[in-house]
Design a protein that fits this description.
With 162 residues, the protein is an alpha+beta fold. The chain has five helices and six strands. Strand 3 and strand 4 form a beta hairpin. Helix 3 packs parallel to helix 5 and helix 4 crosses helix 5. 15% of the residues are buried.
Length: 162
């Protein structure tokens, strides 16, 4: 069974469209029976056309987006290495959300969050939101934005931690 949706890749969450590919006939029939019990039969027309258009005609746009996101990752990595060398950027795996290791600052997550918010005017996701032990000392930064916005956020991060 494979589940796909264009929502994040093509920035079309409003379509509320996805597809489930089930090669096994028996499993597909059971799945469809369950859908029918819940009153779900098909996507709306706009969602179906949007999903098809994204996967059929979106390759050029997606390739340009991936290149832009990689440039944002490289820019962020370079900025942090130069300006905030005690922080470490974790290499992302198929996402525009960067994990930044702040453990070398020897601050509690609450103190780090408060410092970033009050001194830097920047709000980032705390790693503990994603795992109390595993996320401790990490922040999550969204680099899926225009470069100027990213630069502004990184300057605020620097201002807060300098």
């Amino acid at each position: 069974m494979t589940c796909i949706a264009p929502s994040k890749t093509f920035n079309v969450p409003g379509l509320q469209a996805s597809a489930i590919i089930i090669p096994n006939n028996e499993l597909r029939e059971k799945y469809q029976q369950q859908q029918h019990k819940q009153g779900f039969f098909t996507l709306n027309t706009f969602g179906t056309i949007g999903l098809e258009a994204a996967y059929t005609h979106g390759e050029i746009w997606l390739n340009e987006l991936l290149a832009y996101l990689q440039e944002n990752i490289d820019f962020t990595r370079s900025f942090i290495k130069k300006n905030l060398p005690s922080l470490k950027v974790i290499n992302p795996e198929g996402t525009y959300l960067l994990w930044i290791d702040c453990r070398a600052l020897n601050m509690s997550d609450e103190d780090l969050h408060n410092l970033l918010l009050t001194k830097g005017g920047i709000a980032v996701e705390s790693g503990v939101k994603y795992g109390a032990a595993e996320g401790k000392g990490f922040i999550r930064l969204n680099i899926g934005c225009p470069r100027e916005q990213l630069k502004e956020g990184l300057k605020k991060l620097k201002a807060a931690l300098s």
